[in-house]
Design brief:
By secondary structure, the protein is an alpha+beta fold. It has helices at residues 72-89, 114-129, 136-146, 150-153, 196-206, 210-229, 233-252, 263-277, 298-311; strands spanning 6-11, 14-18, 26-28, 31-33, 40-44, 50-56, 61-64, 67-69, 98-104, 158-161, 169-171, 180-186, 283-285, 292-297, 316-320, 327-328. The chain contains nine helices and 16 strands. The longest helix has 20 residues, at 210-229. It binds (3R)-3-hydroxy-3-methyl-5-(phosphonooxy)pentanoic acid (PMV).
């Protein structure tokens, strides 16, 4: 067996500026692959990490944040790696029992994109453990099986996952964007009420605004690419806000309604409006949970932290910049 005895991979969450919300259904080998109905544009964040350690063990075990999980998802990836190994090396990869130990240094499954970094780290670790050495594009395509947004977390910086495509790509960007900062505010720590997978299906099936969301998102993603190229953070900020509000509007109009916004989230949104009116360059976004992420520049971070700290004391807060892609430690 061509395995490395133990490996550890690290990856960082992918925060969508322009959202993936809705799937084009594809069914291959009985596995439902995630193919997005909308083009998403994202940044990979530093300062939040998922680590996956893999080692040989007497029996198969999968732990997430210290809690034992069902091994099925790992088995699914092992089958895929077996096929890829055979195709590449023209011989069989024999699969022995392993222990997979996944840990996040931030709240798991509460709308902070832990699945994006988690699955990216998992496929990176499996790839190194079995010595397959896939290219990033292939890793991106594999990570997507676990969670669509994980296809983007394979890469650092700005990323794009185009509608209908099986993998994400990096977007080249100017050093202008090194000033970009993201402030994560988590007013609620519990696990999200509605998994994004189910929420997307329910929205697509029942929301009268789903089709409009998909069409609108097409325009937003084109404009966002232009804003990144033109080094225009003001324009990008506006597009970021348009994307998440339209995404959430489509979900709220689903039946039964899917509402991720909670009272504290709305208080924060109102306060961000106030800050912007006072001339602070800050724009917000939200994902499948009640947490609010602020996009700003380094120059405003201290001021924003001060204001938020005074208005919402003791809230879980993390400041991030642009992070790197998944790698082996
Ligand atoms: O990748 P998933 O299945 O966790 O869905 C991610 C959905 C959003 O975070 C709301 C948007 C995105 O593009 O990351």
């Amino acid at each position: 067996m061509e395995t490395n005895n133990t490996v550890c991979a690290v990856a960082h969450p992918s925060l969508a500026l322009i959202k993936y919300w809705g799937k084009i259904n594809t069914l291959l080998s009985n596995v439902s692959y995630n193919i997005s109905a909308t083009t998403s544009i994202a940044v990979t964040l530093d300062n939040l990490s998922s680590r996956v350690r893999i080692a040989e063990a007497p029996e198969n075990q999968f732990y997430l944040d210290g809690e034992l999980q069902n091994f099925n998802i790992i088995q699914l990836f092992q089958h895929v790696f077996q096929k890829l190994y055979k195709r590449k090396f023209k011989r069989d990869l024999s699969i022995q029992p392993i222990i997979v130990d996944a840990k996040n240094d931030f709240p798991t499954a509460s709308g902070l994109a832990s699945s994006s970094s988690g699955y990216a780290a998992l496929v990176k670790a499996l790839d190194a453990f079995y010595g397959v050495h896939l290219r990033d594009k292939e890793l991106s395509s594999l990570a997507r099986i676990g969670s669509g947004s994980a296809s983007r977390s394979i890469y650092g910086g700005f990323t794009i996952w185009e509608r209908g495509k099986g993998y994400a790509k990096e977007i080249p960007y100017d050093t202008y964007w090194d000033q970009l900062s993201v402030i994560i505010l988590a007013p609620y720590m519990e696990k999200k009420s509605f998994p994004s997978r189910d929420a997307m299906i329910q929205t697509a099936h029942t929301s009268p605004y789903y089709i409009s969301w998909v069409q609108y998102s097409k325009k937003l993603s084109r404009s966002a690419l232009r804003a990144i190229e033109n080094k225009d953070i003001e324009e990008l900020g506006i597009l970021i806000r348009k994307s998440y509000t339209a995404m959430h509007a489509s979900s709220i109009a689903a039946y039964p309604s899917i509402r991720y916004w909670k009272p504290k989230s709305i208080e924060i949104l109102d306060y961000i409006d106030e800050m912007r009116m006072q001339g602070i360059a800050v724009w917000e976004t939200m994902d499948a949970g009640p947490q609010v992420k602020l996009i700003t520049t380094e120059a405003y971070v201290d001021k924003i932290l001060h204001c938020i700290g005074a208005r919402f004391p003791n809230m879980w807060t993390r400041v991030c910049g642009l992070g790197q892609g998944a790698k082996i430690e």
